[in-house]
Amino acid sequence: MNSPKYGLRLASVLFGLMSLAQLWRLVAQPNVIVDGNPVPVWPSALAFVILAALSLWLWRLGSRCN
Questions:
Q1: Which of 1, 7, 10, 11 is the most exposed place for a label (fewest CB within 10 A)?
Q2: Do 25 and 45 meet the contact criterion of CB atoms below 8 Å apart?
Q3: In tens digits, what is the pLDDT along the chain, a chain of 66 residues?
Q4: Rounded Cα distance, 40 and 31, in Å
Q5: What is the DSSP string of 6-54?
Q6: CA pair distance 48, 20, nearest whole angstrom
């Protein structure tokens, strides 16, 4: 169980879940107010792309491990 494969797969799943949360924010477009100012939605699009890419990258690295 101490294989790097499982750690990479777990990190991949966590990044995937975070990317899905960002995608949900893009679709639902809830009003988020921080200190009285609305937070734009475009950072969620950037976060979705980055997190999805990290998730795929880690999943592929985990597949290469024995």
A1: 1
A2: no
A3: 678 889 999 999 999 999 999 999 999 999 999 999 999 999 999 999 999 999 999 999 998 886
A4: 9
A5: HHHHHHHHHHHHHHHHHHHHHHH----EETTEEPPSHHHHHHHHHHHHH
A6: 7
Structure tokens at 46: 């950037």
Q: Which amino acid is at 29?
A: Q
Joined together, the tokens standing for residue 24 give 């949900």
Tell me the pTM.
0.87
Structure tokens at 9: 């797969």
| 8-state DSSP, 3 | -
Amino acid residing at 57? W
Instruction: Indicate the length of the chain as a whole number.
Output: 66
